[in-house]
């Protein structure tokens, strides 16, 4: 297979309330900090890499689910996939739905 035939797909996300649970201090001192008690929101991104180029990015607020992946595949990626191209995904649980396979 050539690099033009391979499409690598992945997703990632960050929370807006990430806090450090550990820190370095001088010997004998203790680290203290506040930690939010509730979740705020998560910002996620899905995209593909093929032949050294990043394309079809989708940024959204929330967690990645099978429904999000299905919608993104149907609306963004699959209309552009050519015959002979292969989509390579990781083994995330939400990508194991029968519809995605």
Automatic annotation (TrEMBL):
Which segments constitute the Tc1-like transposase DDE domain? Answer: 5-101
Which InterPro entries does this chain map to? RNaseH_sf, Tc1-like_DDE_dom
GO MF term set: nucleic acid binding
Which Pfam families does this UniProt record tie to the protein?
A: DDE_3 (PF13358)
Q: What is this protein called?
A: Tc1-like transposase DDE domain-containing protein
Identify the species of origin.
Answer: Microseira wollei NIES-4236
């Amino acid at each position: 297979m050539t690099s033009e035939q391979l499409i690598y797909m992945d997703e990632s996300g960050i929370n807006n309330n990430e806090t450090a649970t550990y820190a370095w201090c001088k010997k004998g001192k203790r680290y203290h900090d506040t930690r939010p008690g509730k979740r705020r929101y998560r910002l996620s991104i899905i995209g593909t890499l093929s032949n050294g180029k990043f394309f079809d990015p989708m940024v959204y607020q929330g967690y990645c689910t099978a429904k999000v992946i299905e919608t993104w595949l149907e609306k963004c990626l699959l209309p552009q996939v050519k015959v002979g191209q292969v989509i390579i995904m990781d083994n995330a649980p939400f990508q194991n739905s029968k519809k995605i396979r």
